[in-house]
Amino acid sequence: MQILIYGIGGVGGYFGGMIANAGYDVSMIGRGKHLEAIQQNGLFIESIKGDFKVVPKIATDDLKNVSSPDLVILGVKSWQLKDAATALKAIIKEDTIVLPLQNGAGNVEQLLQVLPKKNVIAGLCRIVSFIESPGKIKHASFEPEIIFGEIDNSQSKRIHSVKEIFDRSGIQNTIPEEIELEVWKKFLFIVTISGIGGLTRVPIGKIRESDYLFDLMQKTAREIVEVANAKKIPLTLEHVKRVFETIANQPFQTTASTQRDLMDGRPSELENFNGFIVQEGARLGIPTPVNKFIYECLLPMEQKALNL
Fold first, then answer.
1. Would you state the torsion angle of the CA atoms of residues 191, 304, 206, 225, taken in this order, to the nearest 10 degrees?
2. What is the fold, at CATH topology level, of the domain defined by 2-177?
3. Topology of domain 181-305, CATH
4. CA angle, corner 81, sides to 113 and 145, nearest 5?
5. Residue 9 and which of 78, 139, 146, 304 are 20 to 30 A apart at CA?
6. If DSSP codes are grouped into helix, strand and coil, which group holds residue 136?
7. Model confidence pLDDT, tens digit, residues 190-244
8. What is the mean pLDDT of the chain?
9. What 3-state class would DSSP assign to 144?
10. Can you name the residues that pair with 26 across neighbouring β-strands?
11. Do 181-305 and 2-177 have the same topology in CATH?
């Protein structure tokens, strides 16, 4: 099977590395000094589960150098999905499977604006990993997991063929009964912590110490649930409770990737996180004042990063 990892940062680099390490035919799309280092010396994974190094079949920034893949794993940011999908149109086959792993609740919808529905499945991942230096991915915490499935939750043959790849690669994975609900559960967690982290510029431990900020996170989460329910997604306050149990157990110095992007002046997933809730709330008639406050306060930084 020809497997393409499109985006080889913390997520794509780790999971792509695991799949390549299992002996699969893996090509990687990347850019900049990180790509150059991989082309010269391979990809090094430093992981709490054990370190290893792989040499992908191809590491390039040009899809013309890549064979038509059977499986594409998208490791780019959610705001890059449409551009990635547009580029992939030139090389995907009738039966190519495209799996997004981004944080965000509207990723499948973005892909379906560009790619045929028959090519797209849904997914998310749980991992804390990042590019530590060019050519090196550091997996710092969490048991890495990929959760994925058909958009209609059917138990298709191709879904189980993807599961077999993950199983053989030593990647914990789950095919849930309701993939959309799982996507929103992850979205609930990441949006609840990301925006406030971007505003305060402090780790989760400091945010937890403030009653005011903790309450603000609670309100952020409840607005997300209300928007989800209006979209017929069965998120509940029980899911909010579990999110805050996870937040309570995060290491003191934990920061979210979107928070780090905002702090470093890079384009972030703000538009796809708090911005998405504000947009969907307005469309559905659901008030989202806390998410709107966070979004509008962070928007000037986002526009600066995007040179708007």
1. -20
2. Rossmann fold (3.40.50)
3. N-(1-d-carboxylethyl)-l-norvaline Dehydrogenase; domain 2 (1.10.1040)
4. 115
5. 304
6. strand
7. 999 999 999 999 999 999 999 999 999 999 999 999 999 999 999 999 999 999 9
8. 96
9. strand
10. 3
11. no
